[in-house]
């Protein structure tokens, strides 16, 4: 195993820029790692070895020609298979898009390429990003590198597993209800959900338009900040993208101190339903922050209690409409087109065959919630809750700089345990959903291993809309203090694959 | 049931929903061109084909045009409003939802005044909203060209995503027997407004203006509206009028026999003037509207709206009043021109240099007669206002008389070229050559010695027969007045 795969993205970037190693070497090292562990982890749906090596060679050529390279040029990345890519298939983890080759790159994809990042392949996910375990992928589950019998979180489970398994130093994810933070937490890595509108959704296959947010995964806070900066920022192709400068997240990660900051502990997130080991590690994080000079106060956000039900009305409602386009007419799967059936029949047969059970469940929930006569009671009420949650955040941020909570109520659960119990599955996103509904920034950083099972626990740091830099500043401070206590990154405690 | 009988027993209530395709350079939510008639599926991109991940970006010019339409229709303009998704599955709608507006239209509560039989009727406008067009399905292999019975269908997405403005009237009551004329006059006036704003080419034949006509009947004396039907596929102003008339007659017959009207969409047939049943709306389709999360709300700056209002062009009704005064025409003549769809043609002819009276005379006389004979609209005649203006110029200069001018028009209509080309080809110029005319007169006098003698004898009235002879011999090209004077001169007679 090449030592290159254990390096941080920042280190790899500077090694490549200085010419100490070539981008091709770095890419090859990661392709070798993928070849060695992928049969057990199954983080990828597609590995583009040839195109990755070609992209790496192009970076090396630019360096040889004397071009100045950006901080991540030549660094490999695993790309969630929900972003369109012209040179690789894009499936969203669904049979309905099996083999589809998009005619255009997502804005995030384009910006990765522009930054010189080398796209190794496309990572596994719950179908259309609907799930918390990757068990809903039409192409089989991804396994948690800490314990291969457990889930790596979801929906960006391939993304978290690829980074935690050293198949890539960086990966992209999308977070609709926690799909970056929860997988980061349960695999012991860093995952950031930027402010909604801070990163472009153009070319991101939509699950719930008003919630979907692209964000970075990395093994440390600085790497996440570098990737965040590389692909964020205003995009005229996405009307909901914010036309303001990206908060200076790299600078904030470098700053890494909490002295003088006020940190609010969300009172509603704890107690029943939370794993004792998760609460213990969270308590340690609170004490750590105090020891670093932060003032810690308890904050009540009463509306957060209603976040989960509101989310499970809003997200399915939007998805029921967003997924209507998969109708066998223009791309993707087509079933039953034997010349005897009407277009409507072919649409119905295709959708019946092409969507998995969780996707169908949410389409039905959303269709019902938007129906005439039910709209006000369901979608309308959920939107009101959404407003109340935003107000709770606003009120809290009057007094505190950041809010914290456990990222997830439990550590990684065994594959199959919650597969037949949607409600239990939905609870995995209990603490992460409020920030999707309010659109504010939130980061998950490792905060230790639960005593019961020795599995990673995540600390969630929430900041106001466009306060992404605060997440990185506090996250980097916590990371530095914990790593000095642990004698290295939490991930170094993971069993070897 | 005959129309008059239907109107004796029932009172119609109308409603019109008009779709106008905006003439923007690019589509509503992407950069694709909007030009009509391109090869199928060439004006498409990931967004208007609804490829996974593609997103809409609203066309600012379309929003501006919609606000201008709203202002021209005396509407209030929303200070804040959103697009909404209208969800339903149909193969020519790429996303299987249409981005439209629901309970927050961009413009609302306006009116349009129209004139019918000299009376002003105020049509109240419920709303004006902005949405996107669908693609176009062609059903192949069936007898009717409709989806029922077709072997297969092909879809052209060039039209998908073209900005579409929907203008909805409030229910129109009290039109009585004039309901068909009111519907037509409203549609015609609306087109004039769109033209004056320059926001659309408003071609009903190309589908850039489409009217859905709602009709219901209630028994005389009742105040409770009946069940309405919505007639689609109404592709001309004449059809708007015919469809209302036909639907009133059809519904009256059903109601008179104690039947009930089914709430449904009906299709108008140009050939028969009748409607046939389309989709039933008895079980109302649930479109599951919700605010479009891919787009941000529209919040037009009130100062900008005020500026747009101040910069509106002269509206057609104002323009007509001004021109009526300038031309010195009676209300009745104005109404006649309007009913014949001749106003714009007359106006254009005047703009091309013709005196108003002449322009009106030709369009409302000779040309109206010929259009009527051929069963086409005036505007469909293969002759332009500029050509009419040229003909009036030739008459004024004395090169043509009215009789010759009619022959010139006939030639132009027959495709023989411009008025000057027809004059040349048919040799229609008035004979002004004194030598030629003199020779013709000498011959006519010689051929009619008796008549000539009578004139010499003082019976001047007999000169008419000789002038007739001259006109005949010159095939109408002689100047009759000049011929008369010359004959008398040659016969040595003075009046």
UniProtKB/TrEMBL annotation, chain A:
GO BP field: translation
Amidase domain sequence ranges: 25-471
Catalytic activity: L-glutamyl-tRNA(Gln) + L-glutamine + ATP + H2O = L-glutaminyl-tRNA(Gln) + L-glutamate + ADP + phosphate + H(+)
Pfam families assigned: Amidase
InterPro entries documented for this protein: Amidase, Amidase_CS, Amidase_dom, AS_sf, GatA
Gene3D superfamilies with a match to the protein in the record: Amidase signature (AS) domain
Keyword presence, rRNA-binding: no
Superkingdom of source: Bacteria
GO cellular component, one term: glutamyl-tRNA(Gln) amidotransferase complex
Active-site residue list: 80, 155, 179
EC numbers for this chain: 6.3.5.7
Alphabetical list of PROSITE patterns matching this protein: AMIDASES (PS00571)
A single GO molecular function term of this UniProt record: glutaminyl-tRNA synthase (glutamine-hydrolyzing) activity
Alphabetized UniProt keyword annotations: ATP-binding, Ligase, Nucleotide-binding, Protein biosynthesis, Transferase
Functional summary from the UniProt entry: Allows the formation of correctly charged Gln-tRNA(Gln) through the transamidation of misacylated Glu-tRNA(Gln) in organisms which lack glutaminyl-tRNA synthetase. The reaction takes place in the presence of glutamine and ATP through an activated gamma-phospho-Glu-tRNA(Gln).
Quaternary structure (record): Heterotrimer of A, B and C subunits.
Protein family: Belongs to the amidase family. GatA subfamily.
HAMAP family registered for this protein in UniProt: GatA
Name of this chain's protein: Glutamyl-tRNA(Gln) amidotransferase subunit A
Organism of origin: Herbidospora galbida
């Amino acid at each position: 195993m090449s030592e290159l795969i254990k390096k941080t993205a920042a280190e790899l970037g500077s090694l490549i820029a200085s010419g100490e190693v070539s981008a091709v070497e770095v890419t090859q090292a990661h392709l070798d790692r993928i070849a060695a562990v992928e049969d057990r982890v199954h983080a990828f749906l597609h590995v583009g070895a040839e195109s990755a090596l070609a992209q790496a060679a192009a970076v090396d050529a630019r360096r040889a020609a004397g071009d100045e390279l950006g901080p991540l040029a030549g660094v490999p990345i695993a790309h969630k298979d929900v972003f369109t890519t012209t040179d690789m298939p894009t499936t969203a983890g669904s049979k309905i898009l099996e083999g589809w080759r998009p005619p255009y790159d997502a804005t995030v994809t384009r910006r990765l390429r522009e930054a010189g990042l080398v796209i190794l392949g496309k990572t596994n996910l719950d179908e259309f990003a609907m799930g918390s375990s990757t068990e809903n992928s039409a192409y089989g589950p991804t396994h948690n590198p800490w314990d291969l019998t457990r889930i790596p979180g979801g929906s960006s489970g391939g993304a978290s597993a690829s980074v935690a398994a050293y198949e890539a130093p960086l990966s992209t994810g999308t977070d609709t209800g926690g799909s970056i933070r929860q997988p980061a937490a349960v695999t012991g890595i860093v995952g950031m959900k930027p402010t909604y509108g801070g990163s472009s959704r153009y070319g991101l296959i939509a699950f719930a338009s008003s919630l979907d947010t692209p964000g970075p995964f990395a093994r440390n806070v600085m790497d996440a900040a570098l990737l965040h900066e590389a692909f964020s920022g205003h995009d005229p192709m996405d009307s909901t993208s914010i036309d303001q400068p990206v908060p200076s997240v790299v600078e904030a990660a470098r700053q890494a101190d909490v002295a003088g900051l006020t940190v609010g502990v969300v009172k509603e997130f704890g107690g029943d339903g939370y794993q004792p080991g998760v609460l213990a590690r969270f308590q340690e994080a609170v004490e750590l922050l105090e020891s670093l000079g932060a003032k810690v106060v308890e904050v009540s956000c009463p509306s957060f209690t209603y976040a989960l039900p509101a989310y499970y009305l809003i997200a399915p409602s939007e998805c029921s409409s967003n997924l209507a386009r998969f109708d066998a007419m223009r791309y993707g799967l087509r079933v039953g087109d034997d010349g005897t059936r009407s277009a409507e029949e072919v649409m119905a047969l295709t959708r019946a065959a092409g969507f998995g059970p969780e996707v169908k469940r949410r389409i039905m929930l959303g269709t019902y919630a938007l129906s005439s006569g039910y709209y006000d009671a369901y979608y309308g009420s959920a939107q009101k809750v959404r407003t109340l949650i935003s107000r709770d955040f606003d009120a809290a941020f009057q007094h505190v700089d950041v809010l914290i909570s456990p990222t997830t109520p439990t550590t990684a659960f065994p594959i199959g345990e919650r597969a037949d119990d949607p409600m239990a599955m939905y609870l995995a996103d209990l603490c992460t959903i409020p920030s999707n509904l309010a659109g504010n920034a939130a980061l998950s950083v490792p905060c230790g291993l639960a005593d019961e099972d020795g599995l990673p626990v995540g600390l969630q740091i929430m900041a106001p809309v466009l306060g992404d830099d605060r997440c990185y500043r506090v996250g980097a401070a916590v990371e530095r203090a914990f790593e000095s206590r642990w004698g290295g990154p939490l991930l170094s405690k993971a069993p070897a694959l | 049931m005959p129309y008059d009988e239907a109107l004796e027993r029932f009172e119609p209530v109308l409603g019109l929903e008009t779709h106008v395709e905006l003439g923007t350079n690019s589509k509503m939510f992407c950069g694709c061109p909007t030009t009509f008639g391109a090869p199928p599926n060439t004006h498409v991109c990931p967004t208007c084909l609804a490829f996974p991940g593609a997103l809409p970006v609203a066309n600012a010019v379309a929003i501006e045009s919609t606000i201008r339409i709203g202002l021209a229709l005396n509407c209030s303009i929303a200070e804040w409003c959103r697009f909404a998704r209208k969800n339903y599955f149909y193969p020519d709608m790429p996303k299987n939802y249409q981005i439209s507006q629901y309970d927050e239209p961009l413009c609302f509560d306006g009116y349009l005044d129209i004139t019918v039989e000299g009376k002003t009727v105020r049509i109240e406008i419920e709303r004006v909203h902005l949405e996107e067009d669908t693609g176009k399905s062609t059903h192949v292999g069936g007898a009717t060209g409709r989806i029922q019975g077709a072997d297969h269908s092909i879809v052209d997405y060039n039209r998908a995503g073209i900005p579409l403005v929907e203008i909805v009237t409030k229910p129109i009551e009290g039109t009585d027997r004039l309901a068909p004329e009111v519907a037509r006059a409203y549609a015609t006036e609306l087109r004039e407004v769109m033209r004056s704003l320059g926001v659309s080419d408003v071609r009903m034949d190309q589908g850039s203006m489409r009217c859905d006509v709602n009709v219901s009947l209630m028994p005389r004396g009742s105040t409770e509206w009946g069940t309405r039907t919505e007639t689609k596929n109404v592709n001309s102003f004449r059809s708007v009028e015919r469809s209302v008339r036909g639907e009133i007659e059809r519904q009256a017959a059903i109601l008179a026999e104690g039947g009930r009207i089914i709430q449904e969409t009906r299709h108008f047939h140009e050939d028969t003037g009748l409607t046939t049943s389309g989709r039933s709306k008895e079980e109302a389709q649930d479109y599951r509207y919700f605010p479009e999360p891919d787009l941000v709300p529209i919040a037009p700056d009130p100062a900008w709206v005020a500026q747009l209002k101040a910069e509106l062009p002269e509206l057609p009704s104002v323009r007509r009043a001004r021109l009526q005064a300038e031309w010195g025409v009676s209300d009745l003549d104005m109404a006649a021109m309007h009913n014949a769809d001749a106003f714009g043609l007359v106006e254009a002819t005047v703009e091309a240099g013709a005196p108003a009276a002449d322009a009106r005379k030709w369009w409302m006389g000779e040309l109206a007669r010929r259009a009527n004979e051929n069963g086409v609209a005036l505007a469909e005649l293969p002759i332009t206002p500029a050509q009419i203006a040229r003909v009036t110029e030739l008459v004024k200069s004395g090169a043509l008389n009215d009789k010759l001018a009619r022959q010139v028009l006939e030639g132009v209509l027959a495709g023989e070229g411009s008025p000057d080309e027809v004059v040349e080809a048919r040799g229609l110029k008035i004979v002004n050559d004194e030598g030629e005319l003199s020779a013709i007169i000498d011959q006519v006098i010689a051929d009619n010695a008796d008549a000539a003698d009578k004139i010499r004898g003082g019976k001047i009235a007999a000169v008419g027969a000789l002038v007739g002879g001259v006109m005949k011999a010159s095939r109408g090209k002689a100047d009759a007045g000049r011929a008369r004077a010359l004959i008398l001169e040659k016969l040595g007679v003075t009046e």
